[in-house]
Each structure stands twice: as C-alpha cells, then as structure tokens.
Design goal:
homodimer, 182 residues, alpha/beta, Rossmann fold, two-stranded antiparallel sheet
Chain lengths: 182, 182
C-alpha cells in the first residue's frame, strides 16, 4: 500500500457500467465480471492503460510481468507504455526454455504456473499486472516466481479487485493498485 | 497482399538475433522460435509494435482481433495504438457470453476457438494479428469467426512467418503483413 495515493483505489469504478455481469459462470453461484465488453470500447481500454501506467511512470520499471491469458492484455501494453520489457508467465509446458514453476491451491485442486529462468535479471525492477485480484492465489504464485529470479517487485496492479475475497491478505508488504473495486 | 508495400515483408529480419531457437520443442524434429527473448527487450518490442501498427494507421481499424494466448501480447497494444477496440478469441469454455466457434485441423486431431457473438458489429473494420503464421490453420479459423460476425477484414498481421509452411495459401485475397520471415 502506498499512502501517497489511496485516492487511486477504485478510481475507475464508473467503468463498471462497461463490464458485463454474467451469473453462474463458470459454475452455479459465481457472478462473472466479463471485461470483454470493456476491452472492445477503445476509450475505456485506453483510459484503463493510462491509469495503470500513471503511478509507475517514474518508477524505473524494467520488466512488466503478467500471467496468461488475460493478464497479457494489460501487461503487454503496460510494458510498452513504461518502456519496459514484457515477461509472460505461462501454464506448464508452454515455455520452451528452462523454467521455474510455482504451484498454488484453488478451490478444488491445484494449479501451476511457470516462468523462464532468464526472464528477469537479479535486481531488476518489476511490475506485476493482472486483470483480476480475487483470492490472490495466482498473483502470490507469480510473486514467488519473480522473487526466485531475484526481481525487485515495485508494485502489483489490477484492473478489478473483488475486495470481499481479501486477496490483499496474501500480498502484504506490496504496493497494490486496483482500478475497479467490487 | 498489398503491392504498395512489398518492401515491408520481412522488414525486421534483423531481429532474428533476438529470437531464441530451441530444437525439439514441443516435440522432436520441431525447431521452436522463442519470442520471449525478444519481448523482454523493450526497444525490440517497441519497434515491432510500431511496424505492426504503421501500415494501418489511416485504415480506420475499429477492432483488433487476436487469438489467445500469445496473440494477446501483440493484439492488445496494437488496438491501443490504432485507437481500436480489442477482441479476444479464446479456447472453448473461456468466454462467458454467447459465442460462435470454429474448428480446424492440426497435425493430429482438431482444435476449436471461440468469439463472443457481440464482439464485432456488422461492417466494422477489423485487423487480425498473431505472433506466428505457420500452416495458417488458426488464423483461417479466426478469419471464419470474424466473417460470421460480419466484420470487414482489412488485414492480417504477424510478427513471424514460416514461409515454407505456405500459410498464405489458406488466406488468399487478404492483405498479409509479416515482419520476420524464416
């Protein structure tokens, strides 16, 4: 948390009207926030990227890291806007060179993500970005991978945060930005 | 093919030095071109995006469409640079609203991709982008989906083209840009 900019949390809540809510997806009882309706709106998409990049413009970010697949939609343009390199974290078996893997718990079972061992140099300044902060399991695993590579994590940025799921509790000590909060 | 800019084909071949070649991935006999080494280089990544966007700057593109996951890395920033909306094509079961699906052949078996039925309005000008043009199966299926939505395809843009696989034969009549050719 960065006390210098608490006002930025939930700053784009007015864009909720551009996010489609779909009940019972991917299964009964889950309300899914569908951001594709927002992505197809050029002005909304551009506003989001501007707000994601703004706090980190002078932070000397060297690598922007994102988890496939939806994370790429924000991570790649963010890397370009910050003149940083882009590092994809992927499912096992997708990255062709030597990787580190991290396994985390889901509601049922586990999931694993991987990063190339040479993706980040020791001491490089890293910004992690994803579309959604829910329980925080995926991003905590991504944090773990970046730390194993020796990256210095300067921030965790999200388009949407589901605050009731308390993902922040898994990410204590990190500067967290979320633009739309439910 | 656009005869006005044949010189742009393979224009970034000098960036081949930034692409890592990995033999026998994902299986024996396949030489895999690993673009992660290029993506982590901010200058190279920025150059690529500039060259992908340049031919379409005044083309009135309204939607940039890309197939998960690597396609998102180029499609999302391209949409932003062209002030267009971004439309993700995904594997079945990932998009929450009503979709159209298209199935295509792989070397062994089939694969299916899906797009939201409301992703593109009839008559909208569309640019399709992907990291790789190989046999052309995936992109031909994506073309099929865009046409079913009534989109007008203005171009197909690729970072890498494996010319020996003759993917262009499946994509006759379309304006094709590829920046790095093997």
């Amino acid at each position: 948390m960065n006390p210098a900019r608490p006002h930025r949390e939930g700053k784009l809540n007015h864009l909720k009207t551009a996010i489609r809510e779909i009940p019972d997806f991917p299964k009964k009882g889950i309300l899914f926030y569908d951001i594709t309706t927002l992505l197809k709106n050029p002005k909304a998409f551009s506003t989001i990227l501007g707000e994601l990049a703004f706090p980190y413009k002078d932070a000397g970010i060297e690598k922007v890291v994102a988890v496939e697949a939806r994370g790429f939609i924000f991570g790649a343009p963010l890397a370009l806007q910050l003149s940083a390199g882009f590092v994809p974290i992927r499912k096992p078996g997708k990255l062709p060179a030597d990787v580190y893997e991290s396994t985390y718990s889901l509601e049922y079972g586990n999931s694993t993500i991987a990063v190339h061992q040479d993706a980040i140099a020791r001491g490089e300044r890293v910004l992690l970005v994803d579309d959604l902060l829910a329980t925080g399991g995926t991003i905590a695993a991504a944090v773990d991978l970046v730390k194993r590579l020796g990256g210095e994590i300067c921030g965790l940025a999200f388009l949407v945060e589901l605050t009731e799921l308390k993902g922040r509790d898994k990410l204590k000590g990190y500067d967290i930005l979320s633009l739309i909060q439910y």
